[in-house]
Design brief:
elongated, eight-stranded mixed barrel, alpha+beta, single chain, Sortase, Chain: A, 330 residues, 33% helix
């Protein structure tokens, strides 16, 4: 085998370059070792909480959970409750229409005073895509289920003035868009006396001039809701409408503006159900005490499995009763 010698004066080729010329890869440069890591710091043992600190932490955690449940109930669960209530009320009122027993006054078909929350009509606003059942009464409990009819006024379509209250944000917010109605927009209401067609005449706020009383034989409808940002009411908005179809005779009414309960007025709060909130709070406290006892007796895992659903239920009951103390047009 003959070894080729480099010609005189030739520059010797470095080994990596020579390897590249032969089709191989040059060797990688040696890796620089990383700097040494610091040894892990020992975990500092936290001192055990005192009895006062443990109680304060439990109270803070409970208040945080209650606040979260209140916000969820106001913004999510209340809308679900409204949908369920509307479905039930719609089925009940349509059954009354079919049987010819739908109320046409403050009493039912047997001349018994209608209870709060009884269905008595269906209101539709085509421009807003709204379809809502009207119930008797305008307190917070009634406007949570649907539109509320103020007891001291006639039914929609009857001679006189009828007032309908609806929420602007919570519990479905059925009247959230009525401030966008323009004069000439159509409103229809179906009661036990048939279908009544109204035409919007204007929008006004508290303090604005009130339209004159309707003439003899005329009928007018007033829609009421809260104005301002959602869940932050700043007053009351009114939408006035006049009947363009035939007016019906007004039924007998026992409630007058003098005897109308304070909680049934616009933007009023209902404190008659505070006792229910007290019972809900008592139930929550009992469940928490039982959970602490179970935690010490049976351990964390079993306590969580059993008491988490019960605590959520208790928190929901408290949040629901708290929400009912808010203004009836919120």
């Amino acid at each position: 085998m003959t070894v080729l010698e480099a010609p005189p004066g030739a520059v010797p080729t470095p080994e990596p370059a020579a390897a590249a010329m032969r089709g191989g890869r040059p060797p990688r440069p040696p890796r620089t070792p990383p700097p040494p890591r610091r040894p892990p710091q020992p975990k500092r043992a936290r001192p055990p909480l005192t009895r006062g600190e443990a109680i304060a932490r439990s109270i803070a955690a409970t208040l945080a959970v209650m606040l979260m449940m209140f916000v969820l109930n106001l913004t999510v669960f209340s809308h679900l409750q409204h949908l369920v209530s509307q479905q039930r009320l719609s089925d009940e009122f349509r059954a009354q229409l079919s049987a010819g027993t739908a109320p046409v006054s403050e009493g039912d078909f047997e001349n018994v005073l209608l209870p709060d929350g009884a269905p008595l009509g269906i209101l539709e606003i085509p421009s807003l895509g709204m379809y809502e059942v009207i119930v008797e009464g305008t307190s917070s409990a009634e406007t949570a289920t649907g539109l509320g009819h103020q007891r001291d006024t006639v039914l929609p379509g009857q001679v006189g003035v009828s007032k309908i209250a609806g929420r602007a944000a919570a519990y479905g917010g059925p009247f959230s868009g009525i401030a966008s109605l323009s004069p000439g927009d159509e409103i229809s209401v179906r009661t036990g006396q048939g279908l009544h067609l109204f035409e919007v005449t204007g929008l006004r706020y508290a303090g604005d001039p009130t339209p004159p009383n309707p003439l003899r034989g005329e009928s007018r409808l007033i829609l009421m809701t809260a104005r301002g940002a959602p869940y932050l009411p700043a007053g009351v908005a009114y939408v006035d409408a006049r009947l363009v179809s035939e007016a019906q005779a007004s039924g007998a009414r026992q409630t007058t503006p003098v005897t109308l309960p304070p909680e049934a007025k616009p933007m009023a709060t209902d404190t008659t159900t505070v006792w229910a909130l007290v019972f809900a709070l008592q139930f929550l406290i009992v469940v928490e005490i039982a959970a602490v006892w179970a935690f010490r007796r049976f351990g964390q895992q079993r306590t969580w499995i059993v008491f988490v659903p019960v605590l959520l239920l208790a928190g929901f009951l408290v949040a629901d009763q708290t929400t009912r103390l808010l203004p009836n047009l919120l």
